[in-house]
Amino acid sequence: MSTMNISLPEQMKAWVESRTEHGRFANSSDYMRDLIRRDQARQLAVATLQAAIDDGMSSGPAEVFDPEAFLRARRR
Asked: What family, per the record (predicted)?
């Protein structure tokens, strides 16, 4: 595993330390890894959503939606 040193203002350092004192994280490295994993998951979710939006935009003009026809078809 690689090592990375980061500089934080005192207020942020205190926050990280407080997150590790309550037992969820063993140390500040565990906390930072969790933040990075969450950020990666968020970025993937945003990319997935953007791809769906792009697909929708490139699929052509929207069609009129008939909710009654939809419900009838759903009941069948």
From this structure: Belongs to the ParD antitoxin family.
Inter-residue contact 18 to 10 (CB < 8 Å): no
Find the angle CA(3)-CA(33)-CA(14) to the nearest 5 degrees: 90
- Record the pTM: 0.73
Q: How many structural domains compose the chain?
A: 1
pLDDT in tens, 9-66: 999 999 999 999 988 899 999 999 999 999 999 999 999 999 999 999 999 998 999 9
Give the integer Cα–Cα distance in Å for 9 and 13.
6
Under DSSP, the state recorded for 4 is -
- Sequence-distant (6+) residues with CB within 8 A of 12 are none
Instruction: Report the 3 state secondary structure along 46-66.
Output: HHHHHHHHHHHHHCCCCCCCC
**CA-based radius of gyration for the chain:** 23
